[in-house]
Specification:
This protein is an alpha+beta fold. The protein has helices at residues 8-15, 54-68, 73-85, 90-99, 102-108, 115-123, 153-165, 201-208; strands at 127-129, 132-133, 146-149, 175-178, 183-186. Helices cover 40% and strands 8% of the residues.
Length: 210
């Protein structure tokens, strides 16, 4: 499976906004978007950020979503076609599918500081779903699924240290978290309001439909 090995900060600089790809680091002064000299698109011509065409505007919206959830192009298009085949608004259906990815759920539960860290937690075998170990970050959770940890001191320490680092964090309403164990239950499905990214999904649909 392909994966991006470059700097995460380049993605934020290119989109001109924080995509929270490094977790809490993105909220500090170390964030590249916060630094005046770095607040431009990457590359030698980054300072020449001009006015986008209609195509460019739609492309940027698509790239924001793809990079926010840490997807490669082929993965993103696969999710789009799945959303397109469903009922209702395609853009909202696409965002709902992406929110239901296991790596995103682990991040939303505050088990990991970022989606990238959540993927590592999953692939290293620390996460169990309905009592079975899973090592695939892109499986889609459903209502009733129970998410727990491997029965080991190391797994519990990793997650409890993360939970302790952000004690005021509250899981979204569709996730029910017991932080003492820690174990979570999926009690609903995410909605458009649960997406923590300012995005115009209709532009994404227009771009991918061509």
């Amino acid at each position: 499976m392909g994966r991006y090995l470059g700097s995460s900060c380049k993605h934020c600089r290119r989109e001109g906004m924080k995509l929270m790809l490094k977790g809490t680091r993105c909220e500090t002064a170390k964030c590249a978007v916060e630094k005046r000299e770095r607040n431009m698109a990457p590359g030698m011509h980054g300072w020449r950020r001009g006015r986008n065409s209609d195509y460019g505007v739609r492309l940027r919206e698509k790239q924001k979503v793809k990079r926010f959830y840490g997807l490669m192009e082929k993965q993103f298009i696969s999710y789009f076609h799945k959303a397109e085949r469903g009922k209702g608004n395609t853009g909202e259906a696409l965002l709902e599918l992406l929110e239901r990815r296991l790596d995103n759920v682990i991040y939303k539960l505050n088990f990991a500081p970022s989606r990238k860290a959540a993927r590592q937690l999953i692939t290293h075998g620390h996460i169990y779903v309905n009592g079975r170990r899973v090592n695939v970050p892109d499986i889609l959770i459903k209502i009733g699924d129970k998410i727990g940890l491997k029965d080991s001191d190391r797994s519990r320490k990793i997650v409890k240290d993360q939970l302790a680092s952000n004690p005021n964090y509250n899981a979204q309403g569709w996730l029910q978290l017991d932080a003492d164990k820690p174990v979570a239950t999926v009690v609903g499905l995410p909605t458009r309001d649960d997406v923590q990214l300012p995005i115009e999904e209709n532009l994404v649909v227009e771009f991918c439909s061509k």
